[in-house]
Design a protein that fits this description.
34% of the residues lie in helices and 12% in strands. It is α+β, with helices and mostly antiparallel strands. It has one domain (9-137). The strands form 2 sheets. Strands 1-2 form a two-stranded antiparallel ribbon. The chain has a two-stranded antiparallel ribbon with strand order 3-4. The radius of gyration is 16 Å and the shape is globular. The relative contact order is 0.19.
Length: 138
């Protein structure tokens, strides 16, 4: 399994209504991060504060730069960052949870060897995500 290259596929895929936040997260944003809370409406996240319509993309996913895949003759690759990384929802924090999820989402961390031995790859993923997941997801 490769390291995350910040391709943004997971954030782009799930930011269109595929995420939720706990009431505790929403309450904390309201008290401590009004810049995040303004995008919450009736318990739903990533809602346009002006129109009340669901946004097609997370407002906190930012295009950081284009990076070259070294060494590669391929074109530059977009690189994304999360501008609320330390205060992001648990849905984001816990992703990815399963190898099949990564395959479905075309995660660029997956390598052929991971597909050939999904059990080993899942163990490696679980180890990588130890600090991001609560005990019940480990």
């Amino acid at each position: 399994m490769k390291e995350c290259n910040q391709c943004g596929k997971c954030c782009i895929h799930y930011s269109n209504g595929g995420l939720c936040a706990t009431q505790q997260e929403i309450d904390w944003w309201e008290a401590s991060r009004p810049d995040i809370f303004q995008y919450v409406r009736d318990g739903e996240i990533w809602v346009d504060p002006k129109t009340g319509e669901a946004l097609q993309r997370c407002p906190f996913l930012k295009l950081a730069a284009s990076i070259a895949k070294m060494p590669s003759p391929e074109p530059l690759q977009d690189k994304y960052i999360c501008s609320i990384y330390h205060d992001r929802p648990d849905d984001c924090r816990h992703y990815p949870t399963h190898i099949d999820e990564m395959v479905r989402d075309e995660c660029e961390m997956i390598e052929v060897k991971d597909l050939l031995d999904k059990n080993r790859a899942q163990k490696q993923l679980d180890q990588l995500m130890t600090d991001s997941r609560p005990p019940y997801l480990r």
